[in-house]
Structure formats: C-alpha cells, structure tokens
Design brief:
Chain lengths: 773, 479
C-alpha cells in the first residue's frame, strides 16, 4: 500500500450491499422464466391431474383431446426414456402408468397453441379409474407399517434407564402441520429443442444439474445434450429443489415430441395440488427429569408424512432427528424415526428440511417440563444446554456422536435476556393476565441451533467459473441459484473483494449447467458457504497468475504485488486493475479459471448413526410476546426480539433480511398456515384464498432484530455463517408464547394441548381443554 | 357493430378488438403488450403481484385506485387509465420515491412480489401525502410477500412518504376525452359485453338477454373466468352506471347503489359503529374493495359474504328492478337457500337501503378468520339489540358461515326478546345458537369451532355493550 491514500472498493465482503437485482425488481425489469420472450411457435402445456388419491387406471383414451390447436398429447407410454423424475430413490413417475397414488398426480400432458386450448384438451381425455382404499395420515400408515424408507434410530446413553430412574416423567404427543412453500412465482419451465438432438431448458429450479440429468433421462439421451439455465426464481424455499424436475421434464418431453419450444407454467392451484410440501409430523415423547428440570432420559418417536414416494424424505427425516436435541445435551436419548407412506403428494424439502419439526418437539418438551415444575421455561432451558464454546466438559456430545464445539447460545441468551427485558416482561404478562379475563398474554424465549452441511456428505462440493475481461471487468458463474436469498450478491462481493474492484465491475449471469457442471442443489443453507469458497478459489487462481506475471514483469517479489481499492501495486509500479489485466493479456496470461470447494472435516457414518454430519452450527434466539382472545382464539404478536448468529456477516443487510423473512415464514407455519385435506384426500387449501401465509399486519407490532457479533470458529468464507434456514425456527417462540397465553386460562401446571399450526381454532380448542382440566 | 375497447395505458391511448371479452388485463399486459413487470401469483385477486393503478372518471372527477389486473376483464377498462410499474420511472429513468425507498431498505428479495407492492404503495402515496401506519398496512394487505417478512417494505413506505413528489404521471384530461356517455358494446365470436350507462339501458339489455352474467366489480365473476375457466357468452357490466354507484345519506338512512364499491361505501357504512369499520377493514383488501361492490356481495348469495349479516340486523331492504318494474324486500328474504336467491331472470339489484339506527339499538358486528387481513370469514356475526331500560325490546342477530345462507338466529332472538340484558341472558342465548345453526366443517373451520366462536362472539358483544372498559379484542391492542 506504500502509504498511499487509497479508496476502498464498494461492495466488498461485510458491506450491506443491495441485492444485485434490487433495481430491476422495483422497476419490474427483472426477468423471470415466464417473462422471457418466447421463441416463435412456442406451445403451452397443461398437465392433467388424477382426481383420486388411490386408484387403478383401467384405461386412458386421448382421442378426444385432438381439438384444433393441439400439437401433442403425452402419456407414460409416449416417453422415449425412463418414466422417472425422482431425485434419489425411484418412485416419482412423470406420468402415472397403471395406478395413481395421490389426488393431483400427473397422468398426461397436452401441448397446444394456448394454455386455454391445452387445458380444455387435457380435460377431454377419457380415463377410467377404479378407486382403491387410501392411506391418508401417518397414524394409518404406522398401523399398516407402510414406509418409504426404513425406520431409523439415533441414540446415546441408555434412555430406558434414564427414564425409569427419573424423579418426574411426562409423556405426550404433538401434531405438527405441513406447510406450502408459496413461492410467489409458481413452478415453470420452457424447453426449446436445439440442433443435433440437443435440448435447452429455462427452469425455475434450485437444482439445474438434476433437472439437466433428468431431462436427459426421460428423453433417453446423454447429459451433455442438455443445457439448463436459471437466472432467478421468484422464491424457492426448497420447493424447487427436487420438484421443479417434473415440470421441466414434461416441457422437454413435449418439446422433443413437437419439435417446438414448449412452456409449462403451473397455475397456483395446480402448483399447490401437484407439488410437495413441508412434512407434517406426529411426534411422541417420553421424558424423565429431576427437580431442576435436568433431563435424565428422553425418547422421541417421529412419524413423518412423506406422501407417495421417497423424494428427499429420508434425508429430511434424518434432519428432524439431528435436531431433536436443539441446544440441549441429552445424556440418555433415543430418537426413532418412521418415514410414513401415504396416498398424498410426495412431501419435500422446505427451509429447515425436517429440522424445524424435530426442534419444535424438543422445545415443547422443555415447555412441558417447566410447566410441570412450575418454573420459568428459560430456567429449564439453561439447565439443559450444551457446554459453552471454549469450556467443553462432558455435556457436549449429541445423540449422534458429534461434539458441539461452537456453542454460543449461552452468550446469546445473556444478551437477549437483557435487551429483550425478558424477566420484567414475563412478570408484566402475568400481572396483566391476573386482571384480564378475556385477553391473555404469553411470552417465550426459544433458542435455535442448526447444523450446517448437507448430511449426505457427497453433496458438500461446489464449482465456480470466473472470467476476467481485458477491460478489467469480471463475469462470474457458480453452481448456486438465486431465489431471492441474495446468494449472487454475496458471491459477487467475494470476487470483488478478492480482486479489490468495485462490485459494479463484477457481473453474475444465469446459472448454467453449461458453465459449471455437476452442482449440488442450492439448499441446506449452504449456498454462500460452498459457492463463495469456490468463486474465491477461482478468483485466487487468476490473481495468483497476475501476481506471478507482475512480479516477473516488474521485476519484484511476488509479495510486493498487492491489490487494493481498484489498483494493483507491483513493487514501485501502481496501476489500475484494468491496466494490469490488459497488460497480462498482452503477455498471454490466462484470465479465466474454474474454482472448486469441498467442505472439510465432515464425516457421517449413517449405518452407525454416528459421526460429524455438520461442519458447524448456527445459533439464534427469539423472545416473542403475544396476546390471545380467549373467546375466539384470535391473537396478535405484540413484540419479537431476535438475536441471530450469522458469524461475521458477509452482507449484514441481506442476512437481516433472511432472519426476518425466515422468522415470519416460520411463524406462518406454526400459526395461520393450515393445509386441509378432505376425507377423500383432496387438498382444499390450494390457493391463497384458502391458504393463509402472513401478511404485513401479522408480523410483530414491535420487531427488533439484531445479528450476534462473532466469527465462525470454522474457516468459512469471511468467517461467516449460513443464514438461510436457521432463523425460520425462531418462529417457535411465537408458538410457545401462544401456548403460554393459553396456559394462563388453566390451573397452575397445566399442559395446554396446543397443536401446530396454532390457528385461532386450535388455540380456542386448547383454551377449552385447559379450562376443563 | 362492435365498439373497440379504448383506454389509456401508461399515458398512451390503446384500442383493442378481437380479443375475447373475458381476456384479463393481466393477460393483455403480459401476452399482448409484453409488459411483464406485472406478475401473476395467483390469478384470484389474493396475492397482489398483479397490482396496477386504474384511473376512472366518476361524476366529473378522476380517481386512481389500485386493482388486481388478474381478475379485471379487459372491456371493463374501456374509458379508463391503466398505470403499470413500467410507467413509474421519471422521463430521465429515475425511480420514483417508492422504488428508490424499496431499494434503500432492502425490501425485495426474490423480487416477484415487488412490482405489486410498488404499485400499491405508489397509488397510496399518489392519493394520500401523509399516510399513517394503518393506511400503509391497509394499502398492502392485499399484497403477499413470502421472502422479506414485510418489515423493510413497511419501512420503505414510510421513507417514501417523506418525499416531496409522490404523484404518478397521469392523464385525467385525456381520460375525459375517452368518455363515451353512452352504452359500450363489445363483441367477438367468443362473447358479447355490454356496459350500459343508465338503469333503463341495463333493464333493456337484461330483458333481451335474461341469462346474461351481470358483472359489477368482478371480484367473484373474474374468478369464474380465471379459476373455473367458465365461458361467459353475454356479460352485462353495471359499474359504468353512475346512478348505481351513488351513495345517499338521508334522515331516514343510507341508500347504497348496487354498484357502489366497498371502498366508496366504507365511510358511510363505518358510521354505524366502530366494529363495522373493523369489519370493512378486514373485508378483502384495498384492491378488492376498490372493485368489489356492495350489490355484488349480496347478489352472489354467498353464505360467507361479510356484507349481509350486519346489513340484515340493521334492517336493510333491497330494491330489485327489471324492465317491468321494481320491488323492495327485506334483505334476509332475498336468500332462499344455498346458492338460490329470490331474483327473477331480467331482474337486477338496484340499491340497498339501510335505515338509520335508533339511539337505543346496540349494534355490533364481528368477523373471524384464520388471518386478520384478506381472508374469508369462518364466522361473521352481527347483532342489533334494542335495549330500553335494561330490557331487550327487539333483537336481531345474523351470522355468515353458520348456514347455507346468511341467516338470522330466530330462536335466539325470540329468547332474548323481553329479557334483561345480563350475564344470565347472554349465557342462555349462547346455548340457543345451537338450535339456530348447524354449521359445516370445511377448510376454513370445523363445525365445532364455528359454533364455539359464535358463542364467544355473542359474549364479546355482551361485554362490549355492558362493560365497555373490558378489553375484548386483540386487533389494535396496544395501539
Ligand atoms: C381476494 C378476494 C377477497 C375477498 N374477500 C372477501 C371478504 O373478505 N368478504 C366478502 O364478503 N367477500 C369477499 N370476497 C368476495 C367478493 O369480493 C365480494 O363478494 C364482492 O362484494 C363482490 O362484488 P363484485 O362487485 O366484485 O361482484 P361481481 O363479481 O361483479 O358479481 C358477483 C355476483 O353478483 C352478481 N351481480 C353483480 N351485480 C349485480 C346486480 N346489480 N344485480 C344482480 N346481480 C348482480 C353477479 O352476476 C355475480 O353473480 C373476496 C373476493 C376476492 C377475490
Ligand atoms: S395474481 Fe395474485 S392477485 Fe392477481
Ligand atoms: S421478495 Fe419474494 S415474495 Fe416478496
């Protein structure tokens, strides 16, 4: 730097850089898949859904579908390749063959000149069904032992002994509802046949590589003939991890058959009926504890509703088990998981990936213990926490054998208790309740500890591609996809920082299987951890070439070459980055590189159910205060305080956005978002008119969000932490605050049987139950 | 001969012919004009991603309101001005105050909802320079965002409100030139669309086409097109008839034209009681209230409409008219059974008359749903008790969501008649609701909850009318 006053670059790491598309979002110029100008002759597709949850298909007659404007009708037998779009284990056909397994399953598809014609034509198909009995909930599935994967157990110590020797015992159960992703942009793809048997597809997917692979598979061609691009999604949340494949494959199949571009956009009803959701769970628990609330033994039985196929359910159910402890050391614990088959849509990834359900049950148990003992739940929480980072003793091993080395929740508690004025507000709520017969207040402080990494170790890898152009600008690609989480912005910040150029000189283009191959889904909160590192590696490779070249060219030591504030210094010489680059070009230095990253340290032995599935944990805590109308069950969130751990934030503005958005989404899951099926297994909440995600008025009246200042103890990009999923589980504080308010209607020590979601109806039911007890 | 649909789109005059009358504005914008800033998130008026501003001329004045383009049928825009997100930037390309604030506050993540929010807020600020917190919440109650958690959007709204100039570039004078002053007729092979401007014309068209679909705000009918994919061969649009949009206040009461929007009727109706204001605030969203009419809410015969219960207990009477004359009947008599109303072919709803509420009548109405904003009622309750000297001399109670039609609680009413309005009476009345109603279970609520909640609401009514100091509602709690 040689003492020269140099400017700082704009948009480096740690800066609250605006989303790279923010200006396009507000002007309406951001292009989503449906906004791409269709190639001439583009056809529109419609999928015909099964009306039955379970039935034999006796015959399919599509002769009536051939109305004017129709170009193709496809059923299972017209598929040139495999009739399969499953991500891992087989079982997700493109089109049903001789049996349908859920109401909404795809049976056939039509491509026509307009969506109206396609829809009309699809419904002209004559399909004879013979209805069969259907399993529609986990209880029936458990009774008939129908699973999509083998039951699985994680344990440590001796839970039976722990339970039998305990001073106190509680057994209980909790129903936890599912959740629709309700990304604002529905599932969509547009496929265009290319020369020589190639296929191009724009897909709104979190997993372009898988879409590429599955298109090849259904077409019966090799992967190198298919290119999948995605610039941005209008929200994903896990719903476009595996479930975008069907849409893209149907579009590609029809494009292949007609030789014309085909767009398939599900309308909202089809989207919600046809695609999977967050798993609903029933979790039973037995817990034994002493007078202080310390857990002596605990057993959980988790039954998850996977729907009609495995999809990603086994990994999701595993994660529910991994998070059964949340922040608490469970010396004697056994977690048993059943992956139930039902005749419903195959449930799938959703922000938190099973973690939220496992964690909610644990927090519910803590709440039970505290109520039974007449203690503040926070006290019971503290008694059971894992040892703190830097002070590990003998309470630091999870029930799957991983040492929790980085536990900072005690520090987070200490801070939020103070800033959130917890004790005083608990007292105020109690005083209020004593005087208020109709309205009751409730308050809860809940923590989150969330494991970061794909638990399938193989997936923890990423690639990036960086090009530096002669004018000093950079184009960047990586395997991650942008769904609103700000990943592209963060990765641009990494590269800008690395080259020390303004972020405006770095441009990310659409994610493409043609640029970075064999990518993992953008999921598991790992987007910036993985892709940030890969992009950094690519940039460093180029930078190193520049350093070597400059050292040689200017005859100085490599160490004397530095990049700062848009300038490059080499010994005595200082020039702009662009000048340096152009000089390197003239001297035939390669200005393009790939980068690769694979997460270190992780090691998970699934058969033994022991190991280190996670690179690190992210933490957070929230205090929520609610008010409940005990005549109707309606409620309001009065205030929420959040303190969340994003490590050393790569972009504090984006991270705060993830925290707030995640919290509100988690709150929606546990409050107003109720999925309702009728007795025939038809989803009746398949549009925003009936499925109620939070609106602006549902967020806490007083909403205070802060990031907990610290650094990741592991070597992640900029020492940041993943922030996509963990904050969702802060919504548990609202659910338990509601339970606290309900408890105020019953006798001391009552355990309100509040089920999730806590709709006004469920709240009123719980109020009535504690009043009777 | 068909007229051409003529309207202003972002300051430019456009004419349309040949597109089916059921083409939505959203389809037109995205598919024909390739203006893709306006998004489709649901096609049923519930998400706000398609929000546009629409200017209309009424009684010589032009007003700009936010609407859902997804359910607005294109011919209804004839003579109006449509402003989309593409029109907000200044001539030099600078974003407007809302757009700038949304960027500054990090109020977009995936961005798919963003143009809709920008339009809702830009329309709010065009109309109201200094909105308060509730105004902002109302303005975006019909806009869903799945990413941000709303806080930054609310911040952006307040930041933008500080700006000096928040007017959208509009062309009210050109709009005046577009006014036809006579019936608009639009026809394609797919269907006919008539927009009469007088009550007589309306009666005439309906006499000619007794099976025509009447269209007012289209917040129900629009969904028949976009969700149920129905063909509507003949549509008769009522909202251009200024006589049907009038709201008149007299000593006797309030007269609301059948085609008056909820937004226009809001203030007059809210006068009956503060609880009515809350009900109206919970009625759909600003976009829907800007379009949806009081008449449409009655004429659709829905068992879960929020208008009928309070109007019934207030003693509302409706006027039905056809070419052969008019008749008046009490509102509750209009609802015969589920999906069946006392309306003859060729007849239309002309107006609703709500009598002045006598001093001694205790009136309140409540809505219950899973979510505060933009949700259909699980139960909507309304009560009008004439209590004189502590005794109930007359009782009217009606509920939505408790039966196949909006229905009065006759057993309960009979029980109340003549009793003292006290705890014992209200307990007895709660029990009798079980005789009056057999509600059903569906995705909005179970039968049990509807019944329990109806009892709870009756008790709330008792508390609020006898112990006004009692805190009974979570909405607005804590200011
Ligand atoms: C997102 C959304 C939210 C909603 N929320 C609510 C809510 O909270 N509460 C509620 O009650 N409703 C709600 N609705 C339903 C609807 O908005 C209301 O019922 C509205 O008042 C209907 O009025 P409209 O003018 O839009 O009716 P239209 O759709 O134009 O017509 C409705 C029916 O009335 C008939 N009709 C219209 N005018 C006349 C007339 N003059 N004479 C005879 N028949 C006529 C039509 O033929 C049709 O059958 C909601 C709708 C949507 C889309
Ligand atoms: S698209 Fe959802 S309101 Fe119009
Ligand atoms: S920013 Fe994604 S829905 Fe609002």
């Amino acid at each position: 730097m040689a003492g020269k006053a140099q400017k700082e670059i704009s948009g480096g790491m740690g800066q609250p850089q605006a989303h790279d598309s923010a200006k396009l979002h507000v002007s309406g110029e951001a292009v989503y898949t449906d906004d791409i100008r269709e190639p001439a002759g583009c056809l529109h597709a419609c999928i015909l859904k099964s009306p039955h949850a379970h039935a034999k298909i006796k015959s399919i007659d599509v002769s009536a579908c051939a109305i004017p404007g129709v170009h193709a009708v496809m059923t299972a037998k017209d598929i040139p390749g495999a009739n399969e779009v499953a991500p891992v284990f087989a079982g997700d056909p493109v089109f049903a063959t001789d049996e349908v397994f859920y109401a909404g399953q795809s049976v056939l598809a039509v491509a026509a000149e307009s969506i109206g014609i396609a829809r009309k034509a699809a419904h002209l198909a004559k399909i004879e069904y013979e209805e069969l009995p259907a399993i529609l909930n986990v209880h029936d599935a458990m009774r008939s032992e129908k699973y999509v994967g083998d039951p699985y157990v994680m344990q440590q110590g001796d839970s039976a002994a722990g339970l039998s020797g305990a001073q106190h015992k509680i057994s209980g159960a909790l129903d936890i509802g599912g959740q629709d992703h309700f990304y604002l942009e529905g599932q969509i793809a547009m496929a265009t046949p290319q020369e020589n048997g190639e296929m191009h597809c724009w897909s709104s997917t979190q997993h372009p590589s898988e879409v590429q692979h599955l298109i090849a598979k259904v077409l019966g061609i090799r992967d190198h003939l298919v290119t999948v691009d995605v610039r941005r999604m209008g929200g994903g949340f896990g719903g476009k991890e595996s479930q975008a494949s069907l849409i893209a494959c149907v579009a590609a199949l029809l494009a292949n058959k007609t030789g014309r571009p085909v767009k398939l956009r599900l309308d909202r009803d089809d989207d919600m009926i046809m695609t999977g959701k967050r798993h609903d769970f029933n979790i039973r628990y037995d817990v034994g504890f002493d007078d202080t609330g310390l857990i002596a033994g605990i057993e959980f039985t988790q039954a998850s509703n996977c729907g009609m196929s495995a999809d990603l359910s086994n990994a999701i159910a595993d994660r529910a088990m991994f998070h059964a402890d949340n922040c608490y050391f469970l010396e004697n614990a056994k977690v048993t998981s059943y992956r139930c088959f039902t005749h419903k849509v195959s449930n799938t990834a959703f922000r938190g990936f099973g973690g939220p359900q496992g964690m909610l049950a644990m927090e519910y148990v803590i709440d039970d213990i505290a109520r039974k003992l007449g203690k503040d739940p926070l006290e019971v929480r503290k008694v059971n926490l894992y040892d703190a980072k830097g002070a590990l003793k003998n309470r630091c091993t999870t029930h799957y054998g991983m040492t929790v080395e980085d536990n900072i929740i005690r520090d987070i508690f200490a801070e939020i208790e103070k800033t959130g004025d917890y004790a005083a507000r608990v007292k105020q709520a109690r005083d209020f309740n004593a005087k208020s017969p109709v309205l009751k207040k409730g308050i809860a402080l809940t923590p989150v500890k969330f494991g970061i990494s794909f638990t399938l170790t193989m997936l923890n890898q990423a690639g990036a591609l960086v090009h530096v152009y002669k004018d000093g600008t950079v184009q960047l690609n990586h395997g991650g996809t942008e769904m609103g989480q700000g990943l592209h912005t963060k990765v641009c910040q990494v590269v800008a920082d690395e080259f020390q150029i303004d972020i405006s000189d770095v441009r990310i283009t659409a994610t493409s299987t043609g640029k970075v191959p064999n990518t993992s889904a953008t999921a598991a909160s790992s987007g910036s951890d993985l892709n940030g590192m890969a992009a950094q590696a690519a940039a460093r490779t180029i930078k190193q070439r520049l350093v070597s070249f400059a050292a040689q060219h200017f005859n100085c030591a490599e160490i004397a070459v530095s990049f700062h504030g848009g300038m490059v210094t080499a010994g005595e010489e200082t020039m702009s980055f662009a000048q340096m680059v152009s000089l390197a070009y003239v001297n035939r230095v390669s200005l393009s590189s790939t980068g690769f990253y694979s997460t270190p340290k992780i090691d998970w032995d699934r058969p033994k159910a022991k190991g280190r599935p996670f690179f690190y944990f992210a933490y957070g805590a929230a205090i929520s205060e609610v008010i409940v109308d005990t005549l109707t069950g309606e409620y309001n969130i009065l205030r929420t305080d959040i303190l969340h751990d994003a490590g050393r934030a790569l972009n504090p503005a984006i991270d705060i956005g993830q925290v707030e958005g995640g919290f509100v989404q988690g709150t929606g899951w546990l409050t107003s978002e109720e999925l309702w099926w009728n007795e025939k297994g038809e989803l009746k909440t398949h549009a925003p008119s009936t499925y109620k995600i939070p609106t602006g008025r549902d967020i806490p009246k007083d909403f205070r969000v802060a990031l907990f200042e610290n650094e990741n103890s592991e070597q992640t990009i900029y020492r940041s932490k993943a922030v996509g999923e963990p904050p969702l589980m802060l919504g548990i504080s609202v659910f338990l605050a509601l339970r606290d308010a309900v408890a105020a209607c019953g006798p001391e020590g009552c355990l309100p049987p509040l089920q999730a979601p806590a709709t006004p109806e469920n709240v009123l039911k719980a109020v009535q139950a504690v009043r009777k007890s | 001969m068909t007229d051409k649909i003529t309207f202003l789109l972002n300051g430019e005059r456009v004419t349309v012919e040949g597109l089916p009358p059921t083409t939505t504005l959203l389809q037109y914008l995205r598919e024909r004009k390739r203006m893709t800033g306006t998004k489709e998130g649901c096609a049923e008026g519930d998400c706000g991603a398609c929000t546009v501003a629409v200017g209309s001329l009424h009684g010589g004045k032009t007003g700009y309101k936010s609407l859902n383009a997804c359910i607005a049928l294109l011919p209804t825009l004839d003579g109006r001005e449509v402003i989309t997100v593409e029109h907000l930037k200044s001539k030099t390309g600078a974003p407007n105050a809302v757009q700038k604030a949304m960027v500054d506050c990090h109020a977009s993540q995936c961005g798919f909802c963003t143009p809709g929010f920008v339009m809702s807020l830009s329309t709010l600020l065009h109309n109201k320079k200094q909105p308060d917190g509730e105004d902002v919440q109302d303005a975006i109650a019909g806009n869903l965002c799945r990413c941000t958690g709303y806080r930054p959007i609310l911040d952006a709204a307040h930041q933008a409100a500080q700006s000096e100039d928040n007017a959208m570039a509009v062309s009210p004078d050109v709009l005046k030139e577009l006014a036809r002053g006579k019936m608009f007729r639009y026809e394609t092979p797919e269907g006919k669309f008539f927009a009469p401007v007088t009550v007589e014309e309306l009666a005439g068209v309906l006499a000619e086409y007794p099976d025509a679909t009447m269209l007012a705000g289209g917040t129900d009918v629009g969904l028949w097109v976009t969700k149920f994919h129905m063909d509507l061969p003949v549509i008769v649009y009522t909202a251009n008839i200024s006589a049907l949009r009038e709201i008149k206040k007299t000593d006797a009461g309030l007269e609301i034209g059948a085609a008056a929007s909820y937004a226009d009727a809001f203030a007059a109706l809210a006068d009956y009681d503060a609880s009515m204001e809350t009900l109206l605030r919970r009625f759909a969203s600003v976009q829907i209230r800007n379009a949806g009419t009081v008449g449409g809410n009655i004429a659709n015969g829905s068992p879960i409409g929020d208008g009928p219960p309070p109007l019934i207990v207030l003693g509302a009477r409706i006027t039905l008219r056809s070419k052969s004359g008019a008749r008046e009947l009490p509102l509750e008599d209009f609802f015969l059974e589920y999906k069946k109303q006392d309306r003859q072919p060729g007849e239309f709803l002309e107006k609703i008359f709500v009598p002045e509420k006598p001093q001694t009548v205790l009136f309140k109405t409540y809505k219950l749903s899973k979510r505060f904003d933009q949700d259909i009622s699980a139960v909507c309750a309304a009560y009008a008790l004439d209590v004189q000297g502590g005794k109930i001399v007359a009782a009217r109670i009606a509920h939505g969501g408790m039966a196949g039609t909006p229905q009065r609680a006759s057993e309960t009413e009979a029980f109340l008649q003549g009793r003292d309005w006290n705890e014992e009476t209200v307990r007895g009345a709660q029990a009798l609701l079980e005789k009056d109603y057999r509600p059903m279970t569906d995705m909005r609520a179970s039968a049990q909850y509807r019944m329990d909640a109806a009892k709870g609401l009756l008790y709330r009514f008792f508390l609020e009318t006898t112990a006004p100091e009692a805190q009974t509602q979570v909405y607005g709690y804590g200011g």
